[in-house]
Design goal:
Low-confidence stretches: none
Keywords: Membrane, Transmembrane, Transmembrane helix
Radius of gyration: 18 Å
Distance between the termini: 24 Å
Mean pLDDT: 88
Helix content: over 70%
Number of strands: 0
Order of helices and strands: HHHH
Number of domains: 1
Largest sheet: none
Strand content: under 5%
Number of helices: 4
Shape: rod-shaped
Structural class: mainly alpha
Length: about 80
Amino acid sequence: MDNEFRAQQKKSYNVMRVAYDVTMGILLLGMAAMMVFAEKLGLEQFTAADNTFFRYFFGGLCLLYGGFRLYRAFKQLAR
């Protein structure tokens, strides 16, 4: 009985972790898109306040980390 509880607890933790990874990945990829395409989207908050290099650098970091979070979530689902 205790093993069944532990297995259910581990399964629910894995589902929560996958949902968290997917959500964070989507948010980070959205932030990357906003940073990189701020001029085309007409977002004055990003284009006026930040230096172009730092905006693209931060957008690239968000893109890489968001992609990693999605990769980790889908890899966990494949198990």
